[in-house]
Amino acid sequence: MCYSQRTRRQFQRSPRIKVLIGFQQTQSAQRTSAECAKPEFRTVKRIFLISLLTLAALLAIVYAADYTSLRYRIPNNREQFGKVTVRSYYAIQKKANKIEFDYAGTEDDTCVHSIFPHFGYAPCWYLSRHTERRIDL
Fold first, then answer.
1. In what helix (H) or strand (E) does residue 19 lie, and over which residues does it extend?
2. Which residues contact 63 (CB under 8 A, 6 or more apart)?
3. Where are the domains of the chain?
């Protein structure tokens, strides 16, 4: 029996009366604290778990739809890949924690027109916002 489920009357009995009326509980009859958790907490925990699983399922569905759209060119004649010009810099570590930057030139990086990265390429919306690449030496 949970602590919260006991009545005042059971707590007011003396230990001698408890033994006489068979109030002693076996270990299997005693409940753990997890079983005695308040119903409100269990409800909140269940709602949180359901919403987390729903969010994960929705994310998986969006990723699969994005991949299918890219793989099979949905809508028709949509370009799958694009190119973004990226400027590269070498970051050379010097003495006294100083860093020297050397320009390495520009290069065209291939990207995919999708929400998520696919086929080993970054999405174009991300690559167009990150046009500088730092190469640490």
1. helix 15-20
2. 116
3. 1-36, 37-78, 81-136
